[in-house]
Design brief:
Elements: H1 2-9, H2 20-23, E1 28-29, H3 39-50, E2 55-59, E3 68-74, E4 77-83, E5 89-93, E6 109-111, E7 115-116, E8 123-124, E9 130-132, E10 150-155, E11 160-164, H4 175-179, H5 186-190, E12 198-208, H6 212-219, H7 225-228, E13 242-246, E14 249-253, H8 258-263, E15 267-272, E16 276-281, E17 284-294, E18 297-307, H9 312-340, E19 349-350, H10 356-379, H11 394-407, H12 414-417
Antiparallel strand pairs: 1-19, 2-11, 3-4, 3-6, 4-5, 5-10, 7-8, 8-9, 10-11, 12-18, 13-14, 14-15, 15-16, 16-17, 17-18
């Protein structure tokens, strides 16, 4: 009941989020500015969204060979994706099981025979199993219980890698609950897109001084395109832009201009809640991630792929445009964030058609935050789904945790803030 009251307060009916509300012929109030700057809200997002939901990360071609690894950080969760000797693709928290040091300290990708912690010399195989713990040979410790913390990993039919950091043996949120058949899009088939034919060309990052949700809002509408992206109308007919809202993702549609039709160029854009998007074209593919680092900062992370055999001219024609567009978006988001934290603006009224993408995104955020907030309120404590529970000698850990909870040293004052 409380969750319903919260949603109604924001003038949004959860049950009708996808259809009726978005079709109303009146503006809809956006999330308030406090949701884009609050430290407490950011920590709640870490608990309610980033550690519970399936995240679209990259393509499996990033880890082609045994020993390959790639590293990412989403909202303070540092993790690595590896390929082991059997060909298995795994994901682990970048945390040594001994004293929490990082097993990979530098770099975003590489190839290693073993993952070694520089602090005390503990080492792990690419399958996450503990290989060596110096000095522990004669101690009663179960090596099988001290491998790297695993993260649920799903490879879809197109070879893309998804993760879920829920520490439970089976994630509370199933993949199909939000992303069933996300990898079957008729437009890919119609355009003869085979993602195995694309190879990573380069990666780059942009640091943004804004909340991650601003970038998600921005990506999911093209209402701003005619006035801020002069390149876009040269290859897309913006009058045809529309968004199809599909559970946990949004498929954006826009017809190419006549010149691009003659060249056989097309662009298919998809947003994957919460922090990822992909643009697939004849000669080019881009994976974009909005990686939060604080309530008012995030990293725009880009992986740029070229279709095998595409010429430099064909590839650069679209790659250059998207680099300019992403840079322009960065400027837009930074300027908007400055006013969101100025103490003047609360929220605006969004267009139910032209901005139905941001409304859909914001309602997903609102629902997940409200649901988790009510759950924490009921239990009287913060719930961190990604936290792994010790197995050996756990009684000592539980006693220590209980003491800490009693003096609230682990809540950072959140209990008072959330009025538990």
């Amino acid at each position: 009941m409380a969750a319903t009251r919260s949603l109604n307060y924001f003038n949004f009916n959860a049950a009708a989020a996808k259809d009726a509300t978005l079709e109303k012929q009146s503006p809809v109030r956006a999330l308030p500015s406090s949701w884009y700057s609050s430290q407490a809200m950011y920590e709640m997002e870490r608990r309610a969204i980033f550690s519970r939901r399936w995240l679209f990360i990259t393509h499996s071609s990033r880890v082609k060979n045994a020993g390959d690894w790639v590293r990412y950080n989403v909202a303070g969760y540092d993790f690595i994706i590896t390929k082991d000797r059997t060909g298995g693709i795994n994901t682990f928290h970048n945390v040594c099981r001994h004293r929490a040091f990082s097993v990979i300290e530098e770099g975003s990708s590489g190839n290693s025979k073993i993952l070694a912690c520089r602090y005390h010399g503990w080492s792990y195989g690419m399958n996450g199993k503990l290989a060596k713990a110096p000095g522990y040979q004669n101690l009663e410790m179960d090596k099988d219980q001290n491998g790297l913390f695993p993260i649920h990993t799903h490879i879809d039919r197109n070879g893309f890698i998804w993760i879920n950091m829920d520490a439970k043996e089976t994630p509370e949120v199933s993949f199909d609950e939000h992303f069933e058949n996300v990898d079957i899009q008729k437009r890919y088939t119609d355009s003869n897109i085979n993602f195995d034919e694309y190879e990573l060309e380069y990666t780059y990052d942009l640091e943004g001084a804004y909340n991650w949700k601003i970038l998600a809002d921005n990506f999911n509408e093209c209402y701003h395109c005619p006035t801020t992206h002069t390149d876009v109308p040269t290859f897309l007919n913006l009058e045809t832009f529309d968004s199809d809202l599909k559970g946990g993702h949004i498929q954006h549609y826009c017809e190419p201009t006549e010149d691009q039709v003659k060249l056989g160029n097309y662009t298919h854009s998809t947003y994957y809640f919460p922090v990822s998007s992909m643009v697939a074209a004849r000669h080019f593919m881009m994976i974009q991630k909005f990686l939060p680092s604080s309530p008012t900062s995030c990293q725009m992370s880009y992986e740029i792929y070229r279709k095998k055999g595409s010429s430099d001219e064909d590839f650069r024609r679209i790659a250059d445009v998207y680099e300019r567009v992403m840079s322009e978006d960065k400027t837009l988001c930074e300027l908007a964030q400055k006013n969101l934290v100025s103490g003047v603006f609360v929220n605006g009224q969004l267009h139910p058609k032209f901005e139905k993408g941001p409304l859909f995104f914001q309602n997903n955020v609102r629902q997940m935050i409200t649901e988790h907030y009510e759950k924490e309120k009921k239990e009287g404590k913060e719930i961190w789904p990604a936290k792994h529970t010790p197995t050996e000698n756990a009684s000592i850990s539980n006693q220590d945790e209980e003491i800490c909870r009693d003096i609230e040293c682990g809540t950072g004052g959140q209990k008072e803030v959330l009025a538990w």
